[in-house]
Design brief:
The protein is of the alpha+beta class and 187 residues long. It has one domain. The chain contains seven helices and four strands. It has a four-stranded antiparallel sheet, with no helix packed on it. Helix 2 runs parallel beside helix 5. The relative contact order is 0.16.
Length: 187
Protein backbone atom coordinates (compact mmCIF):
# COMPACT_ATOMS: atom_id res chain seq x y z
CA UNK A 1 0.00 0.00 0.00
CA UNK A 2 1.21 3.50 -0.87
CA UNK A 3 -0.06 6.82 0.47
CA UNK A 4 -1.57 7.51 -2.96
CA UNK A 5 -3.73 4.38 -2.52
CA UNK A 6 -5.53 6.30 0.23
CA UNK A 7 -6.62 9.09 -2.14
CA UNK A 8 -10.40 9.38 -1.90
CA UNK A 9 -10.59 7.68 1.51
CA UNK A 10 -12.69 10.47 3.02
CA UNK A 11 -15.22 10.27 0.20
CA UNK A 12 -15.30 6.48 -0.21
CA UNK A 13 -14.10 4.75 2.97
CA UNK A 14 -14.45 6.95 6.03
CA UNK A 15 -18.19 6.52 6.62
CA UNK A 16 -17.99 2.72 6.32
CA UNK A 17 -15.06 2.51 8.75
CA UNK A 18 -16.77 4.73 11.30
CA UNK A 19 -20.02 2.77 11.01
CA UNK A 20 -18.17 -0.57 11.39
CA UNK A 21 -16.04 0.35 14.39
CA UNK A 22 -17.99 3.16 16.09
CA UNK A 23 -21.71 2.82 15.34
CA UNK A 24 -22.82 4.31 18.67
CA UNK A 25 -20.20 7.04 19.09
CA UNK A 26 -21.17 10.59 19.99
CA UNK A 27 -21.38 12.94 17.03
CA UNK A 28 -19.01 15.80 16.29
CA UNK A 29 -20.43 19.15 17.35
CA UNK A 30 -18.81 22.34 16.13
CA UNK A 31 -19.92 25.90 16.69
CA UNK A 32 -21.98 27.49 13.95
CA UNK A 33 -19.47 30.33 14.03
CA UNK A 34 -16.56 28.21 12.74
CA UNK A 35 -14.94 30.13 9.91
CA UNK A 36 -16.07 29.13 6.43
CA UNK A 37 -13.81 26.67 4.66
CA UNK A 38 -14.48 28.01 1.14
CA UNK A 39 -11.67 30.56 0.95
CA UNK A 40 -9.09 28.02 2.16
CA UNK A 41 -10.33 25.37 -0.30
CA UNK A 42 -9.40 27.71 -3.15
CA UNK A 43 -5.74 27.69 -2.07
CA UNK A 44 -5.33 23.90 -2.09
CA UNK A 45 -4.31 21.43 -4.79
CA UNK A 46 -7.35 19.67 -6.30
CA UNK A 47 -7.04 16.39 -4.35
CA UNK A 48 -6.60 18.17 -1.00
CA UNK A 49 -9.46 20.56 -1.78
CA UNK A 50 -11.82 17.66 -2.55
CA UNK A 51 -10.83 15.83 0.63
CA UNK A 52 -11.26 18.89 2.86
CA UNK A 53 -14.57 19.85 1.23
CA UNK A 54 -15.94 16.35 1.93
CA UNK A 55 -14.58 16.29 5.47
CA UNK A 56 -15.96 19.76 6.22
CA UNK A 57 -19.43 18.70 5.04
CA UNK A 58 -19.30 15.63 7.28
CA UNK A 59 -18.05 17.57 10.30
CA UNK A 60 -20.61 20.37 9.98
CA UNK A 61 -23.50 17.96 9.33
CA UNK A 62 -23.60 16.86 12.98
CA UNK A 63 -23.84 13.21 11.92
CA UNK A 64 -20.17 12.25 11.91
CA UNK A 65 -18.92 10.13 14.83
CA UNK A 66 -16.39 12.02 16.91
CA UNK A 67 -13.84 9.22 17.18
CA UNK A 68 -11.80 10.43 14.21
CA UNK A 69 -10.46 13.12 16.54
CA UNK A 70 -11.61 12.11 19.98
CA UNK A 71 -10.59 15.43 21.45
CA UNK A 72 -12.73 17.48 19.07
CA UNK A 73 -16.19 17.07 20.57
CA UNK A 74 -17.43 20.30 22.08
CA UNK A 75 -14.33 22.35 21.45
CA UNK A 76 -13.41 25.06 18.99
CA UNK A 77 -10.33 23.43 17.49
CA UNK A 78 -11.88 22.51 14.13
CA UNK A 79 -11.52 25.51 11.82
CA UNK A 80 -9.67 27.46 14.53
CA UNK A 81 -8.80 30.86 13.09
CA UNK A 82 -5.11 31.25 13.88
CA UNK A 83 -4.92 34.71 12.29
CA UNK A 84 -7.92 36.14 14.15
CA UNK A 85 -6.56 34.77 17.43
CA UNK A 86 -3.10 36.23 16.78
CA UNK A 87 -1.42 32.82 16.79
CA UNK A 88 1.84 32.10 15.01
CA UNK A 89 2.31 28.90 13.03
CA UNK A 90 5.96 28.62 12.14
CA UNK A 91 7.13 26.43 9.28
CA UNK A 92 10.57 24.89 8.83
CA UNK A 93 12.01 28.27 7.74
CA UNK A 94 10.47 29.99 10.79
CA UNK A 95 7.97 31.87 8.58
CA UNK A 96 4.54 32.51 10.07
CA UNK A 97 2.11 30.58 7.87
CA UNK A 98 -0.96 31.00 10.12
CA UNK A 99 -3.09 32.14 7.16
CA UNK A 100 -1.96 29.13 5.13
CA UNK A 101 -3.23 26.30 7.35
CA UNK A 102 -6.65 24.86 8.26
CA UNK A 103 -7.11 23.48 11.76
CA UNK A 104 -8.49 19.93 11.78
CA UNK A 105 -8.59 19.52 15.54
CA UNK A 106 -6.59 19.22 18.71
CA UNK A 107 -4.69 16.18 19.96
CA UNK A 108 -5.91 16.53 23.54
CA UNK A 109 -2.60 17.97 24.77
CA UNK A 110 -3.02 21.42 23.20
CA UNK A 111 -1.33 20.60 19.91
CA UNK A 112 -3.27 21.08 16.69
CA UNK A 113 -3.43 19.03 13.51
CA UNK A 114 -3.36 21.37 10.53
CA UNK A 115 -3.80 20.96 6.81
CA UNK A 116 -1.13 22.89 4.95
CA UNK A 117 -1.61 24.49 1.55
CA UNK A 118 0.55 21.81 -0.05
CA UNK A 119 -2.00 19.19 1.03
CA UNK A 120 0.05 17.62 3.84
CA UNK A 121 -1.10 17.43 7.46
CA UNK A 122 1.26 18.47 10.24
CA UNK A 123 1.10 18.92 13.99
CA UNK A 124 1.46 22.45 15.40
CA UNK A 125 3.04 22.77 18.85
CA UNK A 126 2.02 26.08 20.46
CA UNK A 127 3.95 25.34 23.65
CA UNK A 128 7.12 24.45 21.76
CA UNK A 129 7.84 27.65 19.89
CA UNK A 130 4.69 27.68 17.73
CA UNK A 131 6.39 25.27 15.31
CA UNK A 132 5.03 22.68 12.91
CA UNK A 133 6.52 19.22 13.19
CA UNK A 134 8.66 19.04 10.05
CA UNK A 135 9.52 15.35 10.47
CA UNK A 136 6.20 13.58 10.98
CA UNK A 137 3.83 15.04 8.40
CA UNK A 138 1.09 13.00 6.76
CA UNK A 139 1.22 12.82 2.96
CA UNK A 140 -2.41 13.90 2.67
CA UNK A 141 -5.63 14.57 4.53
CA UNK A 142 -6.86 11.16 3.36
CA UNK A 143 -3.80 9.45 4.89
CA UNK A 144 -4.28 11.40 8.11
CA UNK A 145 -7.94 10.42 8.42
CA UNK A 146 -7.24 6.77 7.55
CA UNK A 147 -4.59 6.64 10.28
CA UNK A 148 -6.62 8.52 12.92
CA UNK A 149 -9.62 6.23 12.47
CA UNK A 150 -7.45 3.13 12.69
CA UNK A 151 -5.61 4.38 15.73
CA UNK A 152 -8.95 5.07 17.41
CA UNK A 153 -10.05 1.52 16.48
CA UNK A 154 -6.83 0.08 17.93
CA UNK A 155 -7.26 2.14 21.10
CA UNK A 156 -10.88 0.91 21.39
CA UNK A 157 -9.67 -2.69 20.89
CA UNK A 158 -11.80 -3.12 17.77
CA UNK A 159 -8.70 -3.67 15.65
CA UNK A 160 -5.20 -4.82 16.56
CA UNK A 161 -2.10 -3.04 15.49
CA UNK A 162 -0.76 -6.37 14.23
CA UNK A 163 -3.61 -6.38 11.69
CA UNK A 164 -2.24 -3.07 10.38
CA UNK A 165 1.49 -3.72 10.51
CA UNK A 166 1.87 -4.70 6.84
CA UNK A 167 -0.05 -1.61 5.66
CA UNK A 168 1.86 0.65 8.06
CA UNK A 169 5.21 -0.64 6.84
CA UNK A 170 4.37 -0.32 3.17
CA UNK A 171 2.88 3.17 3.49
CA UNK A 172 6.21 4.71 4.50
CA UNK A 173 4.33 7.83 5.60
CA UNK A 174 6.17 9.68 8.40
CA UNK A 175 2.95 10.97 9.97
CA UNK A 176 1.30 7.56 10.03
CA UNK A 177 4.47 5.95 11.40
CA UNK A 178 4.71 8.56 14.15
CA UNK A 179 1.04 8.20 15.10
CA UNK A 180 1.33 4.43 15.45
CA UNK A 181 4.69 4.50 17.24
CA UNK A 182 3.03 6.78 19.80
CA UNK A 183 0.16 4.33 20.01
CA UNK A 184 2.53 1.44 20.80
CA UNK A 185 4.38 3.43 23.43
CA UNK A 186 1.13 4.50 25.10
CA UNK A 187 -0.20 0.91 25.28
Amino acid sequence: MKSSDLNGYIERGLDADLARWFPDAAKVQVAATVQPVGPFLQTLPTRASSALRELDEKVRSGTMPSVWLLEMVGDASYGFDFVAKGAKVLDEEQDNIAKNVWSLGCDGRGNYYVLKQDGRVATWYPTDGDKLDANAQFASLDAFMWAKVRRAAVNAKKLTQAELDADLASLADPGVASLFSKSKSES
